[in-house]
Design goal:
0% of the residues lie in helices and 55% in strands. The chain is mainly β. The chain has a single domain, classed as Immunoglobulin-like. The strands form two sheets. A five-stranded antiparallel beta sheet has the order 1-2-8-4-5, with no helix packed on it.
Length: 99
């Protein structure tokens, strides 16, 4: 279990006034229990309101929902990869209020 933040691609998906959605895509080497740290203000997010997580069951093809554990401290969201499968790509969508 380790911090895999540096191996993630993060991009803004929904830049609407008042609402922000960002997509986090991990490398295919992520294990359950790994963490991803995201500074919300870097993406224009003031408060985190929801997280939806997915795991690739077949590389770059089939994905199914897999919820992480998430916490926010001092504006940094920490996502802890859920499930019980190692070495799979994950995708997370974070939704929240804009700054």
């Amino acid at each position: 279990m380790g911090d895999v933040s540096s191996g993630c691609t993060i991009r803004e998906v929904l830049p609407n006034p008042g609402v922000v959605c960002i997509k986090i895509e991990t490398a295919a080497t992520v294990d359950d229990g790994d963490t991803i740290a995201v500074t919300l203000a870097d993406y224009g997010m003031k408060t985190l309101e929801g997280v939806i997580g997915f795991i690739h069951t077949t590389t770059d093809s089939v994905i199914v929902q897999e919820q992480p554990t998430t916490s926010v401290t001092s504006g940094v969201a920490t996502i802890t990869v859920g499930g019980s499968t190692d070495d799979k790509k994950r995708v997370y969508y974070l939704f929240g209020d804009s700054v």
